[in-house]
Amino acid sequence: MTDDTGPADDGLADARSRAREVRALYEQLEGRLLGRTWTLPELALGFTHDAAYVGRLVLAAERTWDIDGDTDAELRHKLAECLWWLFVLADRLDVDLSEAYGATMERIGGGLRRAVAEGAG
């Protein structure tokens, strides 16, 4: 992943930088506590755990699942944490998340625009 922040930058550069700073702090603790840093599969598992919890929090927000604490605050926290995980995983996999997001939204948006124009259901 690059650090380029030219005119086409979509505003994710600062978030990516902050995610890297936080990940570096985690790596220091992992080194101290585990003698190594988390592997890519461990990082992916951490993400999937938090993403699944977002599902429970959405149920809690809809009042179909009880949780302890402030549902709105916890939901905001977990959504932000999931975004952090995406930056971490993209960094480890050498994926330019800004470019991938832009290209994906263009492809999906283009298909949806065509479907809407054609009157598809």
Question: How would you describe what is shown here?
Answer:
This is MazG-like nucleotide pyrophosphohydrolase family protein. This protein has 121 residues and is mainly alpha-helical. It is 72% helix and 0% strand. The chain is built from four helices and no strands. Helix 1 (13-34) crosses helix 3 and helix 2 (40-61) runs antiparallel to helix 3 (71-92).
In short:
This is MazG-like nucleotide pyrophosphohydrolase family protein. By secondary structure, the protein is mainly α.
**Number of strand elements:** 0
Strand content: under 5%
| N-to-C order of helices and strands | HHHH
Number of DSSP helices? Answer: 4
What's the story with the biggest beta sheet? none
Helix content: over 70%
Radius of gyration: 18 Å
- Overall residue-averaged pLDDT value: 91
The outline comes out as: flat
Extract low-pLDDT stretches. 1-8
Class by alpha and beta content: mainly alpha
Intertermini distance: 38 Å
